[in-house]
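lol forgot to send this yesterday, sorry. struct tokens for the thing we talked abt
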């Protein structure tokens, strides 16, 4: 009974924490729209939050890859994927070098991560399978679907032009699309934290299991 109450408490606290986080993210959208005069562009609070979240996710997976040798290839592969997404989100910085230069940086990073994963393909497949079987993957997949599919379709300009007609403003479309992306990135962050915490817990338990087997 006591353990059940602990589970209920932890789940409730996690739900409240996620709700507060999402509320804060929507607060950034409100600031961009209401206080910054519809400033939903590359340097807006909303896009900045997306980039920070992507940086956190990539950083967490790269740090975990450095600490977990047995899962290093799969963890750095996932970290590299989100790092490439970050490079794409920050394409405006790379445009100072050359328009579309972000693609070459993303390809270089992807090549390094994929090469390492291929050289250690067995641990890569095993690690990716472990991620896909973990409950956190369901939320991560939902987040990626929101980012890569739903937000793109929801942000089709023709849809908003037909809906708003003479009152069409690009800022409305941008707000809808960027808000969806921010939600998707938030889901990916929640999933990443949950999965990496579970991975850390498994690693901490392994020495105890070894000692028990030896005894």
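and heres what i got for the seq, position by position
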């Amino acid at each position: 009974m006591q353990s059940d109450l602990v589970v209920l408490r932890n789940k409730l606290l996690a739900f409240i924490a996620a709700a507060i986080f999402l509320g804060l993210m929507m607060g950034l959208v409100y600031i961009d729209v209401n206080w910054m005069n519809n400033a939903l562009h590359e340097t807006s609070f909303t896009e900045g939050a997306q980039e920070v979240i992507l940086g956190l996710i990539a950083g967490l997976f790269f740090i975990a890859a450095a600490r977990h040798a047995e899962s290093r290839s799969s963890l750095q592969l996932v970290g590299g994927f989100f790092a490439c997404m970050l490079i794409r989100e920050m394409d405006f910085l790379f445009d100072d070098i050359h328009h579309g230069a972000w693609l070459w940086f993303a390809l270089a990073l992807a090549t390094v991560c994929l090469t390492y994963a291929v050289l250690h393909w067995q641990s890569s497949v095993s690690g990716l399978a472990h991620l896909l079987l973990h409950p956190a993957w369901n939320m991560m997949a939902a987040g990626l679907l929101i980012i890569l599919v739903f937000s793109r379709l929801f942000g089709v300009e023709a849809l908003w032009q037909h809906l708003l007609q003479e009152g069409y403003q690009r800022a409305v479309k941008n707000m809808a699309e960027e808000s969806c992306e921010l939600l998707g990135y938030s889901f990916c962050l929640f999933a990443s934290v949950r999965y990496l915490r579970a991975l850390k817990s498994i690693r901490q338990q392994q020495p105890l299991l070894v000692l028990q087997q030896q005894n």
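Residues 21 and 186 are 8 Å apart (CA to CA). anyway ping me if u want another try
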